[in-house]
Amino acid sequence: MAISPEPLYQDNMGIPSSAIPPPDLSLLYRDAPTDKEVNLLVWMEHPDPMRRRWAITWSVGIAPSGAEVFRILHLVQEPNHVGLTNWGPLTRPLLEEDMRITRKFLIARHLGADARQRLERIAATTRVQAPDGVYGTQHWVVDVLKSAVEQGIFANSQCRAATSLAWQN
Questions:
Q1: Is residue 42 part of a domain?
Q2: Is-contact 33 120, C-beta < 8 A?
Q3: Is 17 inside a domain boundary?
Q4: Who's near 133: CB < 8 A, 6+ residues apart?
Q5: Sign of torsion over alpha carbons 24, 51, 123, 169
Q6: What is d(CA 28, CA 136) in angstroms, rounded to the nearest whole number?
Q7: What is the span of the domain harbouring residue 70?
Q8: What is the mean pLDDT of the chain?
Q9: Model pTM?
Q10: How many domains does the chain divide into?
Q11: CA 16, CA 92: separation in Å to the nearest integer?
Q12: DSSP 8-state secondary structure symbol assigned to residue 129
């Protein structure tokens, strides 16, 4: 039986030393202390499901432009940087273009504010693997969801249903 080597992780969540943090609108759009629907958001622009971007999201408001504003837990690819970056939870609108090329897969219909804050802490501390030609945003989201299941935030069946649909579509 072959033993898989322990993955290598990037320092500082993959944040390049010269990078400027992305805008965060959490002061303008507060996450209300009510139950929210939490979804797995998948950008469908690539035909290969392994190359699609994944994120965990919930709505926190509507911008003056009419764009929906989300709390988003995800990794990004910074310009001129090899590897992915975890900036931690952010609040931002999804552009109309994003909304056209994304699909939502339900993780939980009702998740309370305390559970969402715990989920944010998991995402903020989930390490980013070093580039290996395979690891992508999907793997990081799965790692976050596994930790959330272990901490009782989600049922395993909820996460399996959402991720199975995302891999198939």
A1: yes
A2: no
A3: no
A4: none
A5: positive
A6: 30
A7: 22-168
A8: 92
A9: 0.93
A10: 1
A11: 21
A12: B
Asked whether residue 50 is domain-assigned, the answer is yes
Check residue 84 and give its pLDDT: 95
Is residue 162 within 8 A of residue 57, CB to CB? The reply is no
User: In the numeric block, which tokens belong to residue 164?
Assistant: 């199975």
What pLDDT, on a 0 to 100 scale, did the predictor assign at position 100? Answer: 87
What's the CA gap between 2 and 77, in Å, rounded? Answer: 32
- The 10s digit of each residue's pLDDT in 41-62 is 999 988 888 889 999 999 999 9
Burial class of residue 40 (count of CB atoms within 10 Å of its CB; 0-12, 13-18, 19+): buried
Tokens of 14: 């993959």
- CA–CA distance, 163 with 11 (Å, rounded to integer): 27
Reported as a pLDDT band with limits 50, 70 and 90, residue 1 is: low
Residue tagged 């898989």 (tokens): 4
**Quick check: is 2 in a domain?**
no
Please answer whether residues 90 and 22 qualify as being in contact, where contact means their C-beta atoms are separated by less than 8 angstroms.
yes
Average pLDDT over residues 141-152: 97
The amino acid at 114: D
- Dump pLDDT digits (tens) for 95-120: 888 888 999 999 999 999 999 999 99
- Residues near 120 by beta carbon (within 8 Å), at least 6 away in sequence: 71, 73, 88, 89
Other CB atoms within 10 Å distance of the CB of residue 29? 19
pLDDT band at 75 (very low <50, low <70, confident <90, very high): very high
